[in-house]
Amino acid sequence: MAIEEILVVDDEEDILKLLEYNLSKEGYKVTCVASGEEALSRASQLQPNIIILDLMLPGVDGLEVCKKLKIDGKTGQIPIVMLTAKGEDADIVAGLELGADDYITKPFSPRVLIARIRNALRRGKKKTPEENNAIKIHDIVINPERHEVLIKGKRVELTATEFALLSFLARRPGWVFTRNQIIDAVKGTDYAVTDRSVDVQIVGLRKKLGAAGKYIETVHGVGYRFME
């Protein structure tokens, strides 16, 4: 069985040493870097199984690193767990909307972090080969491996959450999904995301899709569906 590799990104040496010790003890191969620029370079080179990412980094900050990784076809599928002292709701929402799989605030318990890492790795392994296939419907092409959406050949920039939401609905045209089903599919069953946040994501997604936004239909009293 291959050893799973973790890329740890933090500018605090003590945190890097703590994480390297605890994660190595659990059997993971650990690579540590201290800047956003290094994180982007090493993530592309190493293709780790998961990335532990601090937000407050010198140069390119953690949110920008997350954004760049998620829109890159080579790194877009790598789970990211944010580990940071920034614990305000706005920071957490920003991280999750950019595609982070989990968000842990400092100070933290190494045991809890390891449990969250295992959970994120399990969710990543649940993806089937079919989920990586391109979706072609109406005048939209969705390419999961490239994290790319094209409408009539023109690329549309989406956040990781918007991309996951569109992919989920478009893969099952005509099916009606409740907001809770959408939350579970996009973020997993262990996220405290509200029904209202789904509505906000849909509004933003329709706006970015332009005329193609009409394909996402509201089913009043139930949820949403993608037109066949």
How is this structure best described in words?
The protein is an alpha/beta fold and 228 residues long. It folds into two domains: 5-125, Rossmann fold, CATH 3.40.50.2300; 130-226, Orthogonal Bundle (Arc Repressor Mutant, subunit A), CATH 1.10.10.10. Helices cover 41% and strands 21% of the residues. It contains eight helices and twelve strands. The protein has helices at 13-25, 36-46, 62-71, 89-97, 110-125, 160-170, 179-187, 195-209, and strands at 5-9, 29-33, 50-53, 80-84, 102-105, 135-137, 140-143, 148-151, 154-156, 177-178, 216-219, 223-226. The strands form three sheets. The protein has a five-stranded parallel beta sheet, sandwiched between helices. A four-stranded antiparallel beta sheet has the order 6-7-8-9, covered by helices on one side. Helix 2 (36-46) runs parallel beside helix 3 and helix 6 (160-170) packs across helix 7 (179-187). The protein starts with a strand and ends with a strand.
* Tally of separate domains: 2
CATH topology of the largest domain: Rossmann fold
Q: Find the count of extended strands (DSSP E, 2+ residues).
A: 12
Query: What is the share of helical residues?
Result: 40-55%
Walk across the major sheet and give the strand order. 2-1-3-4-5
- Strand content is 15-25%
Give the overall silhouette: elongated
Poorly predicted parts: none
CATH superfamily of the largest domain: Response regulator
Written as H for each helix and E for each strand, in order along the chain, the element string is: EHEHEHEHEHEEEEHEHHEE
